[in-house]
Amino acid sequence: MVAAPAWILAVASGALLGMDAAMCEGRAFGRAVDWGIRIVFTTPFLLVLIAMGALIGRGLGSVFLVVVLLGWAYSARHARADAREALHAPYAHAALTMGFPTSRIVIHVLVPTCVLPVIAVSGCLLVEIMALDMALSLFGFGPSPPTPTLGSMLTDGLRYLSAAPWIITTPLVIVCLVCVGVRWASHSMASPMRSLP
Q1: Would you say 189 and 122 are in contact if contact means Cβ atoms under 8 Å apart?
Q2: Which of 34, 66, 137, 176 is the most exposed place for a label (fewest CB within 10 A)?
Q3: Would you state the pLDDT for residue 1?
């Protein structure tokens, strides 16, 4: 329930920040985004979720907030790397030399170069968010009942594990299907990029 909207917001904001950081490389904004990415990657995701759950309280809001605050770095790192590579390409130098405005270079050079790789790589983040949501509910820090989440279904199913083991298989099968679907979609998005020169 919270994974998809949080993932969309984290990926979109991270991609924009990463492309802006590549455009502002060497300046204060680019260095700030670079430090932000480093800080996020050294922060344990689950620990921050548990701490925010204790500070803000249980609910979808705390999970959503932490996922967006920590999830943007995954797409920002890849968008920044792809944008740097695109900006140093000969066609980008030619566009700058011919006097094209920066907005046109961003729309016609950076966005097509960065969008598919960022979505393909950030698919793994969606699966990680779902797993964290399940782990939080399993440990008692997730959204309180009656909010339906895969983690709460798993937690409720553990009580009846000996009598009805199929109850916990439903959320696990859903997560497995999402993992396979995301992997398939990421692979199908990445395969046209491999054929590009």
Answers
A1: no
A2: 176
A3: 60
**In degrees, to the nearest 5, what angle opens at C-alpha 96 toward C-alphas 90 and 100?**
130
On the question of pLDDT at 96 being above 60, the answer is yes
Give pLDDT tens digits for 12-38. Answer: 899 889 988 888 888 889 889 989 999
43-55 residues labelled b (16+ CB within 10 A) or e (exposed): eebeeebbebbee
How many other CB atoms are found less than 10 A from the CB of residue 128? 16
Structure tokens at 148: 């339906």
Enumerate the domain spans of the chain. Answer: 3-194
Centre a 10 Å sphere on the Cβ of residue 116 and count the other Cβ atoms it contains.
15
pLDDT tens string 37-65: 999 888 887 777 777 777 777 667 777 88
Question: Which pair of tokens denotes residue 89?
Answer: 């390409």
Using alpha carbons, select from 156, 161, 138, 158 the residue that is nearest to residue 146.
Answer: 156
